[in-house]
Amino acid sequence: MLDYEHKYESRGYKIIAGVDEAGRGPLAGPVVSAAVILKSYDFENRIDDSKRLTPGQREKAAVEIREKAFISLGIVNEKVIDKINILEATRLSMVKALSFLRPQPDFVLIDGNTPLALSLPSQTIIGGDAKSLSIACASIIAKVTRDRIMSLYHGKWPEYGFRQHKGYGTKGHLEALRTRGPSPIHRQSFHCHGLESYEQV
């Protein structure tokens, strides 16, 4: 998973960051991006696309990543998602994460196929969280962070089950929406699920 890092290191780039997001698909909560600059490429825990890891594996990996990387986060809440749409909110969260990163990288590896408005050179990589160690680490940090946020929201609105599904459209989540309507953290722009109380706008 170091082909891209080595490719750009061989071209003279010394500080390479990976950036990825979590939370594009859920019906509720923020989109969270992480930017990561690795200080070491040696990991004891499994590092992979966060979707391929169990919650326990992600938590253990996140602890090690924090020890071996510079990390920053960009979080865009559901109100902004509704205002500018999820694609633009995802871009914004990635740009925010990179803007907070210290030291600043001189090259950025971006998960996906959507370029970002950056002053830095960069490359988009489709499926980058399974191809680049830096992006995989960013995907784990973003996912762990967002899951923790949704667990906190569960404490405020336990009737929706956010701790279990993290805002994704599971059967139980959709049933809660049918019976209770949306909570304050539900994305109003995602009214597209055929629910009488959560109709498409």
* β-strand number: 5
**Number of helical runs?**
7
Low-confidence runs of at least 5 consecutive residues: 192-201
Helical/strand content category: alpha/beta
CATH T-level fold name: Nucleotidyltransferase, domain 5
Going by CATH, what is the homologous superfamily? Ribonuclease H-like superfamily/Ribonuclease H
Span of the ends, CA to CA = 42 Å
* CATH architecture designation: 2-Layer Sandwich
Q: What spatial form do the alpha-carbon principal axes imply?
A: globular
Identify the CATH class: Alpha Beta
Characterise the protein shown here:
The chain is an alpha/beta fold and 201 residues long. It contains 7 helices and 5 strands. The protein starts with a helix and ends in a 21-residue tail after the last helix. Strands 3-2-1-4-5 form a 5-stranded mixed sheet. It has one domain: Nucleotidyltransferase, domain 5 (2-Layer Sandwich).
